[in-house]
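Chapter review: from sequence to fold.
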Amino acid sequence: MKTAKMYGLEVRDYLVYIFREIMNGNKDYSVIETFDILEEVAKELVRLNNKYGINIIFKSSFDKANRTSLHSYRGPNLEKGLTMLNDIKMKYGLSLLTDIHEPYQAEIVGGIVDVIQIPAFLCRQTDLLVAAARTGKIINIKKAQFLSGQDMKYPVEKVRETGNANVWLTERGNTFGYNNLVVDFRNIPDMCSITPHVIMDCTHSVQRPGADGGKTGGNREYVPAMALAAKAFGATGYFFEVHPNPDMALSDGPNMLYLKDLEKVICSLL
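The token string follows.
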């Protein structure tokens, strides 16, 4: 098996993480749209796993509670979404990651997935972090858009002091309003001093929040460069949203890579 980075890939509902040191990859269908799309993404991840000797983690969300509009697509719901994710795990042998928004979801989700993700806007929510930590699963905490890398010491402490030492951090840029995000890559080495596993969310870092008429816009053309810059600053993993046809995706399409382009991006980081 090669030494590779972990790539996090998300198909606006699919995420792929590829770690440099762990041989893990994560692909996410960020918000579950249909089982057919989940399968299309899963098949490609299995192919990449076999070809490059990596372990891609499949990530998708049963609910995206943080939407721009009340009318934005959120996902199928907890029960249906977890059933679909478990079917993917059983059929394709992929590790799973998904996010939770409320403490009661932690135990249920922890019974199926391998990694529980804490959304950026919720990374300071003590009850959510503690509930997730108590599952014993790996906890991936996304850095809030309003925090520095050094600030993430405190969410990590909440998880560790609950008795769970398996914590990852994810950089996803900072916002100052005005429908844009800025990435300070110094956050990566700052967070590497807190935990050895720091992922670069290359998809959400190119978002233009609320800049597309009541929904999020973005610039997918910058995603590959974001990954390479993060590598230079010491990132140990990468998150990409992918979709067979991003322009038809129900959420975050402008930020997503085409599924067919994922292999090229991964190869540039190996």
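Two observations follow directly from the output. Confidence is low (pLDDT under 50) at residues 1-27. The first strand starts at residue 6 and ends at 18.
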